[in-house]
DNA sequence: GTAGGGTTAG
């Protein structure tokens, strides 16, 4: 505990603490201070002062880290001239706020006896920037009792505090006050009003303010764009963009950032629109790159995201913590381990850690690349962990089938004081199900209520999977019947899977009927469905399912596998012949299939029909993407190197058998991550135990 | 001596 950080301190204690901090600081011989002191020597002689006002100002304007700041503060505090310089007080407050210490800024603020409006503005901003919205508004409220009037700097800031805390009613009062003093004509204040109304969901009001403004600039329009985007109205937001372009106002990085909240699951047209906006930007700031990357990441375009990130580096733009936290999930998605590692090194080199979001993203990236040790190392190094960190690590163990580790970590999380939330329970339940930990799974499901977490459909689906996997098909069905919410296709799908494995036709038919009703064209279970109906002799249903497959099943996402070779991602589609090495790959595959047959491999003619996910029907006869990727990897890596493949769908039965045999024939570890879990093939065996 | 819009994870 540093005495300088405590708010109510008496001067004597403070000076003592200052002396201590100073000596400690000087003994560690930090360079900035040494430089600072040597530069200051002549001035010391002149003014009997450690530091000149100008020099302190300069340092403070650069927002020093908290340690330097406290030392500087101490020096200013004990200096008879500097300590009563109001401008240094302002800068100190600002710098503390930037370090996330508005409380210390408040301490300085309270010491000032004769506060003018600037002090209030800086104090309000300090709170606001640290999300202490209530405190910001409380300071605003005290202004009048000090005889100080809010000005054009105050209002934008308090308006932002209103929208941050959803205090629309305070915002309305402030709007009234603004109009009263005529500041609604001010550009900054007007923009603040548009933004406040927009964020509070009052789009009509926002538009009214915008239309009534005497002067508008690009920020005014961006505030309006943000209003629509924050309320999920992407089309409305784009319309405002077009309107502003019509007025010859060019969208800027702020426009892109404003659009961002609405771009998850954007249509491909809208992604293209964002891209063209990005390309047309006069100045591509770091934020605009970050937003464009995030657009790709949030719209399942990880390859584009990674390419853009690499291009950004090439153009000499230095990625920051935001860029990295955004791009890492994409690296994980396509198992771009080498790129991910390089980014990790870069983050360390740039001293971007500790940073909670970035470190969480690192864990996730390593986990998705199947590098549990690396994920764990990052996790262990973290100074602060939140529930996301724990959850990422738990699911990392879960998807590799290490259920016991996941369970142990969950307990550790409980002990650490992090409160598990809904997603944390999903991760531990799914870990139990992948690891076959029946009793533990039941325990955690019951535990949810003790944490006030209401089971959602994902939790139910995990439980059905867990019970079904353990062979308790009847109990799983019973469990579904007792569900408090309507089961969806994932739940019925899990049951159907269990029925297949444990040959339970009666319940299988029930599950199939439900799946059929729940839009079979979406579920991807239609093949299982048709097989089950066929076995039961329900030919009419078979015909219906087939016709649905024929009419709609064709335009689903094609199966794609990725393999990273020397920092480049090679992508294979089912039946792909576009790869430069295509000919060689197919030849080698033929050789392998020959050897596999010697080991008893029989290619199932309708093997593709066993796809649990929606593999394109047109590709059914073609070679699946994971086989191509595996063979490519075999051809291009040295023997002994593990092969890591990522697939965007679940692996099919035929490819699963093939991968097992190839791992034996070629004496290679093959690690395939599908949408469900990791399959670790070694010496003819898979870590999933052939049930997935 | 102080400004407005907007971007990061399970």
From TrEMBL:
<dbReference type="GO" id="GO:0008270">
    <property type="term" value="F:zinc ion binding"/>
</dbReference>
<dbReference type="Pfam" id="PF13041">
    <property type="entry name" value="PPR_2"/>
</dbReference>
<feature type="repeat" description="PPR">
    <location>
        <begin position="386"/>
        <end position="420"/>
    </location>
</feature>
<feature type="repeat" description="PPR">
    <location>
        <begin position="217"/>
        <end position="251"/>
    </location>
</feature>
<dbReference type="Pfam" id="PF20431">
    <property type="entry name" value="E_motif"/>
</dbReference>
<dbReference type="InterPro" id="IPR046960">
    <property type="entry name" value="PPR_At4g14850-like_plant"/>
</dbReference>
<dbReference type="Pfam" id="PF14432">
    <property type="entry name" value="DYW_deaminase"/>
</dbReference>
<dbReference type="Pfam" id="PF20430">
    <property type="entry name" value="Eplus_motif"/>
</dbReference>
<dbReference type="InterPro" id="IPR046848">
    <property type="entry name" value="E_motif"/>
</dbReference>
<feature type="repeat" description="PPR">
    <location>
        <begin position="116"/>
        <end position="150"/>
    </location>
</feature>
<comment type="similarity">
    <text>Belongs to the PPR family. PCMP-H subfamily.</text>
</comment>
<feature type="repeat" description="PPR">
    <location>
        <begin position="421"/>
        <end position="455"/>
    </location>
</feature>
<feature type="repeat" description="PPR">
    <location>
        <begin position="285"/>
        <end position="319"/>
    </location>
</feature>
<dbReference type="InterPro" id="IPR002885">
    <property type="entry name" value="PPR_rpt"/>
</dbReference>
<dbReference type="InterPro" id="IPR046849">
    <property type="entry name" value="E2_motif"/>
</dbReference>
<dbReference type="GO" id="GO:0003723">
    <property type="term" value="F:RNA binding"/>
</dbReference>
<dbReference type="Pfam" id="PF01535">
    <property type="entry name" value="PPR"/>
</dbReference>
<dbReference type="GO" id="GO:0009451">
    <property type="term" value="P:RNA modification"/>
</dbReference>
<dbReference type="InterPro" id="IPR032867">
    <property type="entry name" value="DYW_dom"/>
</dbReference>
<feature type="repeat" description="PPR">
    <location>
        <begin position="355"/>
        <end position="385"/>
    </location>
</feature>
<protein>
    <submittedName>
        <fullName>Putative pentatricopeptide repeat-containing protein</fullName>
    </submittedName>
</protein>
<keyword id="KW-0677">Repeat</keyword>
<feature type="domain" description="DYW">
    <location>
        <begin position="600"/>
        <end position="692"/>
    </location>
</feature>
<dbReference type="InterPro" id="IPR011990">
    <property type="entry name" value="TPR-like_helical_dom_sf"/>
</dbReference>
């Amino acid at each position: 505990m540093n005495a300088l950080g405590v708010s109510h301190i008496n001067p004597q204690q403070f000076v003592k603490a200052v002396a201590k901090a100073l000596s400690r600081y000087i003994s560690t011989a930090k360079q900035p201070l040494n430089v600072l002191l040597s530069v200051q020597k002549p001035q010391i002689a002149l003014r009997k002062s450690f530091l000149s006002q100008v020099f302190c100002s300069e340092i403070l304007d650069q927002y020093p880290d908290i340690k330097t700041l406290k030392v500087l503060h101490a020096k200013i505090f004990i200096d008879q001239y500097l300590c009563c310089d109001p401008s240094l007080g302002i800068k100190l407050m600002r710098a503390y706020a930037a370090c996330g210490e508005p409380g210390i800024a408040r301490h300085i603020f309270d010491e000032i006896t004769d506060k003018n409006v600037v002090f209030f503005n800086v104090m309000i901003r300090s709170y606001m920037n640290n999300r202490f919205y209530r405190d910001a508004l409380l300071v605003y409220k005290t202004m009048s009792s000090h005889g100080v009037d809010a000005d054009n700097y105050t209002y934008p800031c308090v308006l932002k505090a209103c929208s941050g805390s959803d205090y629309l009613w305070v915002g309305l009062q402030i709007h009234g006050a603004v109009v009263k003093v005529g500041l609604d004509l001010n550009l900054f204040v007007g923009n603040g009003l548009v933004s406040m109304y927009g964020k509070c969901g009052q789009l009509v009001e926002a538009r009214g303010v915008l239309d009534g403004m005497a002067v508008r600039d690009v920020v005014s329009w961006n505030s309006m764009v943000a209003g629509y985007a924050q309320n999920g109205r992407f089309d409305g937001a784009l319309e405002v963009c077009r309107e502003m372009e019509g007025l010859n106002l060019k969208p800027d990085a702020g426009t892109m950032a404003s659009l961002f909240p609405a771009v998850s699951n954007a249509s491909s047209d809208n992604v293209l629109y964002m891209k063209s906006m990005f390309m047309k930007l006069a100045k591509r700031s770091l934020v605009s790159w970050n937003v464009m990357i995030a657009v790709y990441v949030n719209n399942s375009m990880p390859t584009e995201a990674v390419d853009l990130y690499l291009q950004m580096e090439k153009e000499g733009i230095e990625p920051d913590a935001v860029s990295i936290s955004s791009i890492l999930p994409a690296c994980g998605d396509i198992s771009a381990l080498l790129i991910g590692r390089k980014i990790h090194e870069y983050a360390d080199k740039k001293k971007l850690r500790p940073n909670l979001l970035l470190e969480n993203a690192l864990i996730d990236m390593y986990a998705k690349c199947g590098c549990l040790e690396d994920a764990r190392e990052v996790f262990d190094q973290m100074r602060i962990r939140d529930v996301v960190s724990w959850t990422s690590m738990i699911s990392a163990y879960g998807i590799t089938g290490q259920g016991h580790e996941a369970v142990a970590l969950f307990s550790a999380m409980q002990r650490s004081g992090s409160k598990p939330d809904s997603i944390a329970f999903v991760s531990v339940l799914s870990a139990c199900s992948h690891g076959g930990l029946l009793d533990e799974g039941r325990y955690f499901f019951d535990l949810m209520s003790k944490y006030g977490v209401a089971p959602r459909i994902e939790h139910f689906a995990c439980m059905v999977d867990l019970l079904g996997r353990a062979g308790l098909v009847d109990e799983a069905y019973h469990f579904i019947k007792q569900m408090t919410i309507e089961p969806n296709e994932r739940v019925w799908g899990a049951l159907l899977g269990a029925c297949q494995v444990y040959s339970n036709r009666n319940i299988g038919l029930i599950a199939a009927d439900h799946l059929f009703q729940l839009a079979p064209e979406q579920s991807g279970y239609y093949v299982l469905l048709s097989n089950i109906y066929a076995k039961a002799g329900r030919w009419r249903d078979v015909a219906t399912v087939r016709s649905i497959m024929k009419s709609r099943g064709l335009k689903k996402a094609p199966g794609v596998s990725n393999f990273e070779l020397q920092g480049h991602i090679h992508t294979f589609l089912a039946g792909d012949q576009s790869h430069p090495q295509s000919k060689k790959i197919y030849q080698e595959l033929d050789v392998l299939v020959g050897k596999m047959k010697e080991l008893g491999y029989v290619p199932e003619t309708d093997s593709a029909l066993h796809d649990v996910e929606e593999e394109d029907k047109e590709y059914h006869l073609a070679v699946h993407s994971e086989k191509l990727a595996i063979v490519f990897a075999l051809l291009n890596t040295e023997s002994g190197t593990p092969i890591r493949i990522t697939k965007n769908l679940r692996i099919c039965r035929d490819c699963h058998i093939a991968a097992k045999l190839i791992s034996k024939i070629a004496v290679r570890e093959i690690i395939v991550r599908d949408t469900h879990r990791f399959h670790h093939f070694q010496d003819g065996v898979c870590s999933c135990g052939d049930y997935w």
